[in-house]
Amino acid sequence: MKRVSGMFLSLLGILMYACSPVVYTDTAPEADFGAYETYAFLPSGEDEGDGTIYTEKIINEVQQEMEARGYELDPENPDLLVNVNTMYEEEEELQRVPVATTYPYYTDGFYTPATLEPYYYTGFATIPEITGYGIREIEYTEGTFVVDIIEAADREIVWRGWSETPIDPEYIDNSIRDYIDNIFEEYPVEPVRE
Length: 194
Known about the structure:
6 strands; 26% helix; Double Stranded RNA Binding Domain
């Protein structure tokens, strides 16, 4: 029983890892992240409306990540400027889907060579036979989050993290949290508090 539960937990971990957003980062080699203490956000340029709700949630998530790393918000004299960009696009994907039928006259041994019979599922007559393929259109939202950390003194980007992943609009709040968490896992400064 312990072996089965261990395998289940391993499989669950692999699935969770596979479903997490893919993150890319770029760090300026000369940046001294230990020298920075304060930060402020740059305006996103979004108009009033639905987009500002998501921008506010993203800023709150980024703020939590920055403060967890010991940075203090200082809009007057920041060491770092944080610029967050989001882009959403409705995408479509076409998938080839098998069209299957089951015939009631299938019996054991039907289309089964005798030499291969020990390898075939004995209840194969309950499995539909693929008779062709159809096309199914799937709509999804593709989202890109980009977080730029800019040194305020010289206006140079010292770190950039970004992620592109399909987003389920029903779970956008969790998607935002996952994006930001995964992006900041790659940040050069480890959290000092959670």
